[in-house]
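Posting this for the archive.
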Amino acid sequence: MPSTHRAETFPANTPATSQIFTTVLSHGPLTRLEVARRAGLSAAAVTKAVRPLIEAGYLVEDADQEAPPALGRPANLVRVDGGRALFVGVKVTGDEIIGVLTDLCCRIRVARRVPLARRTPRAVLTAIADLTQELLTEADGLGVRVQGLGVAVSGDVDRAEGSVRYSPFLEWRDVPLAELAATTTGLPVTVDNDVRALTVAEQWFGDGVGLSDFAVVTVGAGIGCGLVVHGRVVAGAHGVAGEIGHVPVDPAGPVCHCGNRGCVEAIAADGAILARIRAATGIEVPDSIAAVDLAHQGNAAARQAYAEAGEAIGRGIATVANLLGPERVIISGEGLAAYDLFAEQIRDAFTATAFGSAARCDLRTRPLPFEEWARGAAATAIQSFIGSDVN
């Protein structure tokens, strides 16, 4: 049954108001002068935007207890009241659904996991609805309304249309997921690619805070990349910007499921690594955990497979650095469980392939559980709610 929850309207009627709120959300508490400086707006514009947000309870103004004594009125700090609203974020994988209930500052209050027996849209929608209802019940206990649901799915996702155009792991094509999920849950729904959702969370709350240009590269079942350019998460004209997994790095490499040869994903994704280890050793390695164990035991073929994966990833990251010149690349994903087996190769291949000062890009590893990916989905719901989808 659809939820009886009804979302309210965020009191931001101008892009400047959304920008100011986002600035406080990511960097606060801040004085109004600091907000104006960071947002590139006048003090008068900040005062005008802050007033309705304070009146509605989304922002709170406190005295700055750490400020040194000074003549005149002391500066007050503006901060977001995280408890003012709640959001649900859901990450869909091939075999389970991870859901989180977050506050307005995207702090996880409750996290749940449920197995996914089937990958059909109907089965996934039922699981999303059931999990969302469970989290809504938790929200009722907190006495705060849930204002939106974010869903993160791998593959080609059109956020504006709310549709999954193609998800290879779920074997979906042209599924209007946002519309269907809104009907089953009764909540406003934002659907986005899972790596882009994770990138939103990193931009606002993680290792991307304060950076205008950075990338998130994820390794695991697939190889993904989220891009922030001039302070905006970009999807490109067709929604597939950042497809580092399908950058060819070895013309003689294996055929990728996309039809090309030698893509990063065809060499470095978990399935590709497992296939090479099985072919080289004759051992039926069941999963990535067993493959990592085999490599740690000193098996030469397993270690070589991971070394080649690291080289492919490093070359892919260098391509991103050469094209966009990000200040930082954050490497994450479940594949980091094997990071010690290919970290050196990633850095060596990146250094060898990056052009000039692009090699100065900061490579940073950030292991994140799937709950953090679900948190990214919640961040996209917060984005939609406050009207800053383009930021």
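Residues 300-324 form the longest helix (25 residues). The chain has a mean pLDDT of 92.
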